Amino acid sequence: MAATINVGLVGYKFMGKAHSNAYRQVAHFFPDVALRPVLHTLCGRDEAGVRAAADQFGWANVETDWHRLVANEAIGLVDISTPGDSHAPIALAAAEHGKHIFCEKPLANTLPEARQMVEAVQRAGVVGMVNFNYRRVPAVQLAQRLIADGRLGTIYHWRAVYLQDWIMDPNFPLVWRLQKDQAGSGTLGDLGAHIVDLARMLVGEITAVTGLTETFIKRRPLEASSDSALGATAGEGMGEVTVDDAALFLARFASGAVGSFEVTRFAKGRANYNSFEINGSKGSLRFNLERMNELEVLLEDDQPDVAGFRTVLVSNGAVHPYWSAWWPAGHIIGWEHTFTHGVYDLLNGIAAGSSPAATFEDGLRCQAVLDAVERSAGSKQWVEPEY
Length: 387
Ligand code: SOE
Hints:
Layout: E1 3-10, H1 14-29, E2 35-43, H2 47-57, E3 61-63, H3 66-71, E4 77-80, H4 87-96, E5 100-104, H5 111-124, E6 128-131, H6 138-148, E7 155-163, H7 180-183, H8 187-202, E8 206-214, E9 219-226, E10 232-240, E11 246-253, E12 258-264, E13 273-280, E14 283-288, E15 294-299, E16 310-313, H9 337-352, H10 360-379
Parallel strand pairs: 1-2, 1-4, 2-3, 4-5, 5-6, 7-12
Antiparallel strand pairs: 7-13, 8-11, 9-10, 11-12, 13-14, 14-15, 15-16
Residues 164, 190, 229, 272 line the site of alpha-L-sorbopyranose.
């Protein structure tokens, strides 16, 4: 039986629920996991709310102050599933107490905060991992392998969109995600961070960007109450939206490839449409999260009479990562499985003493790209990320 590690999770709404599920599932489906997580303490400011969530998700204890959680000697892993403005303070304190850290994306609200977080985990010698969960979709892993093996040849194009539509109603209230002091940015940090991370994973480092951001609805009703990350009720009074509703940018990669990125919360009918296409000298591929078990692949060595994009159902445990832990081929998996895959790699990383990707350094590099896009949108110039 593997050793155990006590987990302290800060945040119990949308991401807290997804992470709790991953800790509960991981040893059940991956019996070879090197450390078994114990759902030790769930932390949130509202005592009644955090108690109810702890009962629902299966946590043994509750805590209402993260300062006490990170100082708790029983806890070995601190999971940060809170809005961005608390990532840096919690991570810095957790590292100081020698805790390993699993942090939701984006790593921080600002580039200086991200730098401090990287330094803190390096100084403390603890594992730091950012939860860019789409890295761990088996179809995305297949895309990475095809590129690494040279099957697509030289990569010329990266083309990615991440489209949502949940704030199109002008009466949708001013939730924390629409306030810069809490969220850091809008679509750029929330959705752009995902596709920048995927671009870095698949195509490599970004050297320059030029972009624009737009806020279509500038004032919204203040929030009366919220019961989940995206559900909320409008109350009395109005407030200013201080983040972007959409961001579009072009990029140059160190490899010579070029890329386009578009993120928005105003794409009517697109609830969570995360898709990319990559074109290389010998082939192309396309991924669409709404069909996350599939990868569309075109390879030049196909016979001409059948050449074209094929749809690969990425579910063969013999050749596709993570699959053998789940079901026989063709018995598809879903969005929540990506979190379980991340937690599996995280726990193995802690046992081995090394940070799995996305490391805090990856999180910092992603942040540098987002920061460059914001600067470019302000200056209307091409801008280089400050790595
Ligand atoms: C909301 O926009 C959200 O939940 C993001 O915060 C997640 O990172 C993304 O995976 C789905 O949409």
